[in-house]
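Narrative progress, year one. The postdoctoral researcher (J.K.) led the effort to move from monomer predictions toward full complexes, under supervision of the PI. The following entry was the first complex the group processed end to end, covering 577 residues in total.
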Amino acid sequence: MKKLMRVSGWLPVLFLVLNLSFLLGTKVWADDLAGFVGKSGTLRISGGTAHIPVMKEIAGLIMKRATEIRISVAGGGSGLGIKQVGEGLVDIGNSGRKPTSNEVQKYGLILYRWALDGVGVIVNKDNPVQSLSQSQLQEIFSGRIKNWSQLGGVDKKITLVSRDQASGTRKVFWKKALEKGDISSRALVVSSNGAMKSAVLHNPYAIGYASLGFLDDTVAAVALDGVAPTLANVRSGAYPVVRGLFSNTKGSVSGLTKEFINFLYSQKGQEIILRKGLIPVAQ
Amino acid sequence: MSGTLQVVFSGRRLLFLVTAGGVFVTLSILVFMIVLGLPLFTSNSFSLILTQDWAPDRGFFGIFPFICGTLAIVTLSLLLAFPLSLGNAVLIHLLLPPVAAKFLHRVVKMMTGIPTVIYGFVGIFLLVPFVREWFDSGSGMSILSAALLLALLISPTMILVFVESFAAIPKSQVRAVAALGGNLRQKLIYLYLPGAQNGILTGLLLATGRALGDTMIALMVAGNATAQPESLLDPVRTLTAHIALVMAADFDSIEFKTIFACGIILYLWTATLTLTLRFLPYGVLKSRLNRGLS
């Protein structure tokens, strides 16, 4: 069972890597990855969970090309990423919000914003309610609307799912979608974008929110005031719940860390970012 | 001769150092938590933290709902697990034929080794949907779900300690009761339960400690909501889950400081349990035995 899970967990990654090498001429990525060849060492990354799909894929590509390099990618949330990079526990601390001026000053952080991300409202695939107005959303999350039948759905209690205090996703959702309105204290709390998706996937009456990079066919994305949370709508500015994704380092960096950051802005890096459902941003 | 003495002496010194080290680390953890949580005590906000609700967006940083949540889950899981474990121990020690008893004993022993995250994982997929549909109230992530899984987690420890303490009852007494023609009920009430009282209390306290300290099950299955629970089907957050969730917050924030309040409470609870374990049972047992003999 355990073995099976491990293998099946790696399959999509393997598949993507294989796909990639077929789709692209070796020449393109030979250029962008050339800086890593012959290098060795370890690179530790942690923090925002919205960053993880991109980070993992890039880490896989690099480690495949330069086998002497080890890259570890961990979650923990934006707050943790900023804290750990500030304390020197990791080389790159990711955050789904801009670090506060206090944090930047205290740790001497340098910020790299490499993508735009939308935060979409998600419900279970079987839920007939897949479009809400912003004021409806605010009433749902404050706990004033309690039952799906009030929104034209089944007669079942709404299960709110939210994130912990350290989450950048929560912060931007609270600020831009809820306009700093209350989040009911009865809401369940999960600790990553992945856990959010699985909570909504396994509960037909749940509503939550997650990074665009995590939206796929397994859950239904809710249109907000008629605007669906899609890449095109984020890029055009029609979808309002948008934030920057940051990778932060302590002071200016060199070597492997620098190469990794540069790769995020390379042509290949930006292709990966786009394919993971985010919008790449130039340096 | 002097060589042996020296070995004994240095061995004793080594053991002393190890023990002193253990005590030092344990105490310094408490000191560490109090020192880092000091701003809470000095700013007089400690009582607020202990009594208020948790709503950081509105400036409330109380952990009272989490204290209630922890106590609710632990109490319910003990209520479920204690009779179950006692019955199971009686089954293993008295009722089953030796082969079956041995098998059950092995299974229980194996269960103590299952990591708690496995219970949490299985709970999410099997128990939570069941509770959600069966009771038709909320998400299924609730005090009830967490307590059921926690009962499963702490039962093996209790069963093993109970069986051990049943086995420690002198054979002469067992034979004496049998010779007097005592039936099962009489054996239990007059011999096994009083005789194993010490062990039963020990098992219960050990299980309580384990239930208090467990993080994964509550984090995965209890829902982590910050509201004060009103029914067994409400989601709650335990003190341990709160620590795990807020760990990632900004180090200087009040949110983060509340971790130390949680830590201190858990530490003191566990310390009380351990001290009770150390001092109480022997006295109780002795007086009971004396009364029984006179």
